[in-house]
């Protein structure tokens, strides 16, 4: 009908001519069983078994590269995610950010982008001092002292664990200096506690199959004078001004709802001052795109971070800020309550111990990062079709079992005369994989991969219950073995993109 407007011809007449040409084409003809004109000028095509057989062989030949390398253009991407204060173990909120950020990184790499994963370590300021003082108090208690944790300090058992590590490192060296801690002792406990906590966090994340290429310390920005130089640059460019003894950033010029304080009237800098220095550093490294994965309470940061990039003379569009919403844990129909300082949080390590890495990774990207959701622990523990990761992994294991007991399909086998509807449905879903990858890459949405895998597993299980492989005519066996191999490759690729294993046995 689009062509009809351009050629000033009747749509149905043009459709009739196209159908005649399709049927007469030496290459297209064998791939189409029927071509019919419908309605005002639609053309309905029924694809032949040969088309499906060729498609299956194409996917098998590509293997794990089917759908790979579609980036246009390929970019250098720096993605920063998790970036939690090293004051406690990562909890389920961090776990969702980790699963999302790593999933995006894997998808971008699969598409052909060069990706760097970075963790920004918030190891400066009052929270670090409170954490250091809390560890110092626990350290003193290990030596029989009645040292008290600060009122706003950290109470969790993990603080005792860090204190024990410090006792093992330095013995009783600081026992006489923590009741109360002097400035030097407090600085030591803050610095060393931060390092030990970060090592524990990294170990948990690596266990979660999340790795980082770089760790960037906020402390280095302050100690190297980078924060101060950033403020001076904003003043020189007219993007910062003094008012009531404080230094303000003109973020309203760049679309923020109001200007923001960079340096308070008492001379201390805000978090934004360090963010200015850090993002100007990132923007100047030569990457084409920056991704900041932030938590639900950081939505207001988006405009001011774009303002930082623009004020630094860079294109603010180079920065993307996905916001990952909250996740709640549900068990027995009731929500679990969490608090880091009170020590009642559910940690990433505990989540992995409970439901496993595969279930945690799958469930945490199953819903869009833009929506809050409840992770039902009872469903995640289940070994049945109600558990989506089990459902998908079981499809892969079933295929692996069939292929292990079957000969390879001959490459020159003729296609079957007829196909079961479940065969057609399964192969058409496989053909949609490259588009699913494009959507996931372009929209930074790992949940699209999880949704696709669930649909693919559903189509496979339907095929499995309707179609045998062993004992069928040779051409049917050959086609179905190719169909199984193609399905297995796509499931394995898709699971890997969201950090989930594809087992051959379950």
Describe this entry's structure for a reader:
With 506 residues, this protein is an alpha/beta fold. Among the domains are: 2-47, no CATH class; 53-71 and 386-497, Isoleucyl-tRNA Synthetase, Domain 1; 132-202, no CATH class. The protein is 51% helix and 12% strand. The protein contains 18 helices and 15 strands. The chain has helices at residues 2-7, 11-24, 49-62, 92-111, 126-142, 157-170, 183-207, 218-223, 226-237, 271-283, 301-311, 348-366, 377-381, 388-404, 421-431, 433-442, 446-466, 474-497, and strands at 32-38, 42-47, 76-80, 114-121, 214-217, 240-243, 246-249, 260-263, 289-292, 294-295, 319-320, 323-324, 327-331, 334-335, 373-376. Strands 5-4-3-9-11 form a five-stranded parallel sheet, sandwiched between helices. A hairpin with a 2-residue loop joins strand 6 (240-243) and strand 7 (246-249). Helix 3 (49-62) packs across helix 18, helix 4 crosses helix 12 and helix 5 packs across helix 6. The chain is globular. The two termini are 51 Å apart.
Summarize this structure as a short list of keywords or feature phrases.
18 helices; 506 residues; alpha/beta; five-stranded parallel beta sheet; Isoleucyl-tRNA Synthetase, Domain 1; 51% helix
List the helices and strands and how they pair.
Elements: H1 2-7, H2 11-24, E1 32-38, E2 42-47, H3 49-62, E3 76-80, H4 92-111, E4 114-121, H5 126-142, H6 157-170, H7 183-207, E5 214-217, H8 218-223, H9 226-237, E6 240-243, E7 246-249, E8 260-263, H10 271-283, E9 289-292, E10 294-295, H11 301-311, E11 319-320, E12 323-324, E13 327-331, E14 334-335, H12 348-366, E15 373-376, H13 377-381, H14 388-404, H15 421-431, H16 433-442, H17 446-466, H18 474-497
Parallel strand pairs: 3-4, 3-9, 4-5, 9-11, 10-12, 13-15
Antiparallel strand pairs: 1-2, 6-7, 7-8, 13-14
Helix pairs in contact: 3-15, 3-18, 4-12, 4-16, 5-6, 5-7, 6-7, 9-10, 14-17, 14-18, 15-17, 15-18, 16-17, 17-18
């Amino acid at each position: 009908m689009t062509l009809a407007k351009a050629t000033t011809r009747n749509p149905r007449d043009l459709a009739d001519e196209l159908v005649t040409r399709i049927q007469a084409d030496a290459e297209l003809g064998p791939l189409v069983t029927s071509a019919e004109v419908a309605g005002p000028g639609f053309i309905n095509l029924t694809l032949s078994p040969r088309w499906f057989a060729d498609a299956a062989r194409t996917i098998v030949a590509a293997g794990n590269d089917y759908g790979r390398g579609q980036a246009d253009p390929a970019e250098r991407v720096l993605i920063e995610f998790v970036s939690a204060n090293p004051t406690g173990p990562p909890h389920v909120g961090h776990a969702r950010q980790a699963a999302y950020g790593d999933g995006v990184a894997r998808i971008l790499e699969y598409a052909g982008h060069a990706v760097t994963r970075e963790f920004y370590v918030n190891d400066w300021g009052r929270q670090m001092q409170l954490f250091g003082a809390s560890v110092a108090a626990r350290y003193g208690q290990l030596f029989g002292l009645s040292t008290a944790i600060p009122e706003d300090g950290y109470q969790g058992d993990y603080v005792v664990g860090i204190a024990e590590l410090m006792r093992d490192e330095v013995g009783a060296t600081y026992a006489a200096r923590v009741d109360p801690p002097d400035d030097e002792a407090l600085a030591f406990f803050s610095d060393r506690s931060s390092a030990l906590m970060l090592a524990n966090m990294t170990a948990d994340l690596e266990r979660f199959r999340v790795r980082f290429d770089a760790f960037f310390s906020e402390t280095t920005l302050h100690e190297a004078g980078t924060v101060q130089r950033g403020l001076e640059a904003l003043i020189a460019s007219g993007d910062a001004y003094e008012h009531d003894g404080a230094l303000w950033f003109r973020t309203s010029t760049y679309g923020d709802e109001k200007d923001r304080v960079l340096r308070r009237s008492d001379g201390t800098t805000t978090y934004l001052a360090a963010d200015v220095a850090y993002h100007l550093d990132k923007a100047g490294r030569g990457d084409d795109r920056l991704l900041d994965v932030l938590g639900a309470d950081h939505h207001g940061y988006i405009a001011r971070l774009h303002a930082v990039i623009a004020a630094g003379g860079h294109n603010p569009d180079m920065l993307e800020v996905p916001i990952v919403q909250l996740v709640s844990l549900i068990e027995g129909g009731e929500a679990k309550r969490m608090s880091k300082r009170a020590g009642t949080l559910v940690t990433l390590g505990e989540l992995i111990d409970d439901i496993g890495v595969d279930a945690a990774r799958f469930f945490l990207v199953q819903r869009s990062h833009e929506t809050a959701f409840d992770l039902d622990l009872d469903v995640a523990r289940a070994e049945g079709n109600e558990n989506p990761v089990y459902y998908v992994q079981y499809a892969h294991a079933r295929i692996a079992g069939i292929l292990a007991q079957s000969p390879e399909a001959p490459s020159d086998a003729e296609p079957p005369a007829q196909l079961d509807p479940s065969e057609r449905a399964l192969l058409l879903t496989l053909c949609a994989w490259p588009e699913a990858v494009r959507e996931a890459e372009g929209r930074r949405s790992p949940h699209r991969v999880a949704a696709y895998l669930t649909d693919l597993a559903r189509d496979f299980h339907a095929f499995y219950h309707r179609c045998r492989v062993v004992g069928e005519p040779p051409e049917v066996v050959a086609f179905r073995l190719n169909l199984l191999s193609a399905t297995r490759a796509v499931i394995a690729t898709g699971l890997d993109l969201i950090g989930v294993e594809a087992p051959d046995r379950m």
